[in-house]
Every structure is written in structure tokens, then in C-alpha cells.
Amino acid sequence: MIFTVAIDGPAAAGKGTIGRALAERFGFAHLDTGLLYRAVGVKGGDPVAAAEALSEADLMRADLRSLEAGEAASRVAVIPGVRAALLAFQRSFARREGGAVLDGRDIGTVICPAAEVKLFVTASPEVRAQRRWLELGGEAAAQSYEAVLEGVKARDARDMGRADAPLKPAADAVLIDTSAMSAEAALDAAGTQVRAALARAGHG
């Protein structure tokens, strides 16, 4: 069975959590495409060369979830050569046998425009900054909530404003706003869309 779930959305909206949980629930493979860009960003050197030489081992680095890696990812993601180098990797993963869930920022619009399910997971900048701040340790974090909020807004502007594959919902994506939703409710909303699409494709 070839079946692709494309999940897009801004940082800390919950798309990764939903993506991992959906993959587990339906037995699909999961790819956090942001890790590809984080890995390229932290490798340093020429970003395009780093993207072309990226291996699965690079995705196992312990530092890929850091705030610095996220900033590096956002910087290299605006480079067309980097995006082109990672395109084939993502498309191949998406159409693997057994189903796949990919989450990122241009999955439904650029990487997998024919995906069977397209979701756009979002939340207000304030809610996303609060989540990220708590992830970093809350009161014990090196950054204040206000600094994290500024970072979230700056990254949104960069991701939405880039010329190549800007962050935006696909025209046929289902919007899930997690601002006031529990993780369980968000997952249920996403799962309902996947089940319906599986049924339409004769896999229900």
C-alpha cells in the first residue's frame, strides 16, 4: 500500500507529535523533515554540499533538537540548492510501501502535492512560544519567554517569507489549530482525516 500523510505547520504547533503518533497508530513510517534541515545546518561548511552528502546517520545526532539547530535549519532552508538536494530523499520516503507520514513546512505544497491526506497544524505564536519555553526548562531556561516568543515570530517571518517553498497551507489541506486543544484531541482530529482517506482509497 502506498499512502502518504503530509503534515505542515510552523514551529512548536504540534505537527511532530501528531506525525509520530499517527505513524504509530496506523503502522506507517515517519519522517520529521525538519531534522534533515537541522542536520544540514549543524554540519556546517557548504550547506548544499552537506545536503547532497546527508546520510541517515546524520539524523541521529543528539544536538538536532536544540534551539541553535532550529535556527540553523531555518537559515539553510531558504537556500534553493539545499531544498533541491533533499527533495528526492523526501519523495522517495513518502511513497515507500506500507504508508508514510512526513511533517515539515512544504510537504503538502511542494514535496507531496498528491498526498492522500494533507494537514496544516498551527497554533498562535504565544502558545507555541510557551510550549517551546517549557521544553527548554521554563523558569530554568537560558532564555526568557519573551526572547523565545521573539524567536518564534522571527522564524515564522523567515519561513513564510522565503521565495522558495514558503510555509503556507496547501489549498486542500485540513487546518488543525492546536492553540486550545489537548494533544489527544489534536491526534483524534488528525486520525479522523486519515481513516476517512484510507476508506476512500479502499484500505479502510
Summarize model confidence as the mean pLDDT: 92
Order of helices and strands: EHEHHHHEHEHHEH
Helix content: 40-55%
Uncertain runs are: none
Strand coverage percent: 5-15%
Distance between the termini: 12 Å
By DSSP, the count of extended strands is: 5
Largest sheet: 5 strands, parallel
Secondary-structure class: alpha/beta
Helices, by number, come to 9
- Rg is 16 Å
Spatial strand arrangement across the major sheet: 2-3-1-4-5
The gross shape turns out to be globular
Short description:
The protein has nine helices and five strands; from the N terminus they run βαβααααβαβααβα. The chain has 204 residues and is α/β, with parallel strands linked by helices.
Can you tell me about this structure?
- With about 200 residues, this protein is α/β, with parallel strands linked by helices.
- The chain has helices at about 15-25, 35-45, 45-50, 65-75, 80-95, 105-110, 125-135, 145-160, 185-200, and strands at about 5-10, 30, 100-105, 115-120, 175.
- The longest helix is centred in the last third of the chain and has 18 residues, at about 185-200.
Topology:
Elements: E1 4-8, H1 15-26, E2 29-32, H2 33-43, H3 47-52, H4 67-76, H5 80-94, E3 100-104, H6 107-111, E4 117-122, H7 125-135, H8 145-161, E5 174-177, H9 183-200
Parallel strand pairs: 1-3, 1-4, 2-3, 4-5
Helix pairs in contact: 1-9, 2-4, 7-8
Short descriptors:
9 helices, single chain, alpha/beta, 204 residues, 12% strand, five-stranded parallel sheet
